[in-house]
């Protein structure tokens, strides 16, 4: 027996192995098998995370392990589906119920505790996650636009006008689909429902698309958006929202995976039907309830 390795070193070593397996999977006769092996290796990395004493190092590795888990689960989900298409099961007998599609097994099997959704790890730092570059926003030129089923089909506010809507604070939890959760975030902003009311939303509206910089968007049914703790926020834990976290303004939608909490929000389109947002059109779940683990479509 060699000397026990430091858990952070062990996680990094296993992450490297995972990356190699993913990188070379397409050169192998059975890429899906390589992906399944990668998921087992990643599961071993995950097993060492709790033993890391340094919180900052642990958070950083939680984020890295989570990203790979999400990538792998998405790949395996597609591969499972392709296999199913190639090998259809026996035709259902009359009266037989259709069998549910097998769910991708998450390697990081941890149950939730009522407050923390299943397969999430707590972080105390606040990771930054987004596609593309954080935009440089000039508040003097900033506008927020509601379109679709609103008064006159378009309502537009300047920053000053937007800030004159009623300000509230709300404490809520934040769950990223890649597996980290940050509890007790104190947000300051304006409730989505107050924005909707000020825009004069039509009774026919059933859904909304929240728009962000760089053509990012997320969709949600309107009743869920009208909940008390859904905010457009400009401050977090007592400090103005930084540009990397979506400042000057972001959506906070606590009861959905965090990809729906659109950063650098520029407006809302109110609709009488559902339209997929950025990630929802790329294999992620349309609803995205973290407690039901609705990660991928
Ligand atoms: N405009 C925009 N908003 C976005 C994203 C993005 O790529 N672009 N990423 C989402 C994802 S996946 C997450 S987890 C959260 C992360 O927010 P944070 O960086 O403040 O932790 O922002 C969400 N909002
Ligand atoms: Mo995320």
Percentage of β-strand residues: 15-25%
Count of strand segments: 11
Major sheet: size, sense and barrel closure?
6 strands, mixed
Low-confidence stretches: 98-107
Rg, rounded, reads: 21 Å
The structural class is alpha+beta
Helix content: 25-40%
The global form is: globular
Distance between the termini: 44 Å
Bound molecules: the ligand Nc1nc2c(c(=O)[nH]1)N[C@H]1C(S)=C(S)[C@@H](COP(=O)(O)O)O[C@H]1N2, molybdenum atom
**Treating each run of at least 4 consecutive H or I residues as one helix, how many helices?**
6
Order of helices and strands: HHHEEEHEEHEEHEEEE
What structural keywords apply?
six-stranded mixed β-sheet, alpha+beta, binds the ligand Nc1nc2c(c(=O)[nH]1)N[C@H]1C(S)=C(S)[C@@H](COP(=O)(O)O)O[C@H]1N2, five-stranded mixed β-sheet, 6 helices, globular, single chain, binds molybdenum atom, 297 residues
């Amino acid at each position: 027996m060699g000397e026990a390795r430091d858990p952070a070193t062990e996680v990094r070593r296993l992450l490297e192995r995972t990356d190699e397996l993913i990188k070379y999977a397409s050169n192998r006769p059975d890429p899906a098998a390589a992906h399944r092996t990668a998921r087992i290796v990643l599961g071993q990395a995950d097993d060492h995370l709790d033993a890391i004493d340094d919180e900052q190092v642990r958070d950083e590795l939680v984020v890295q392990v989570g990203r790979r888990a999400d990538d792998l689960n998405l790949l395996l989900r597609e591969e499972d589906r392709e296999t199913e298409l190639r090998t259809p099961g026996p035709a259902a007998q009359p009266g037989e119920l259709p069998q549910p599609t097998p769910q991708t097994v998450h390697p990081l099997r941890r149950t939730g505790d009522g407050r923390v959704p299943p397969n999430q790890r707590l972080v105390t730092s606040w990771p930054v996650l987004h596609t593309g570059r954080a935009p440089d926003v000039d508040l003097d030129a900033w506008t927020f636009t509601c379109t679709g089923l609103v008064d006159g089909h378009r309502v537009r506010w300047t920053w000053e006008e937007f800030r004159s809507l009623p300000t509230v604070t709300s404490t809520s939890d934040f769950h990223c689909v890649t597996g980290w959760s940050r509890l007790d975030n104190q947000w300051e902003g304006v409730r989505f429902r107050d924005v909707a009311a000020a825009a004069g939303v039509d009774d026919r509206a059933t859904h909304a698309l929240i728009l962000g910089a760089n053509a990012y968007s997320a969709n949600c049914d309107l009743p869920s958006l009208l909940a008390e703790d859904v905010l457009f926020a400009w401050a977090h834990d007592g400090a103005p929202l930084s540009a990397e976290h979506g400042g000057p303004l972001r959506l906070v939608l606590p009861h959905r995976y965090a990809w729906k909490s659109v950063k650098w929000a520029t407006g809302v389109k109110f609709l009488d039907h559902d339209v997929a947002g950025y990630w929802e059109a790329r294999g992620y779940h349309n609803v995205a309830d973290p407690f039901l683990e609705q990660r991928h479509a």
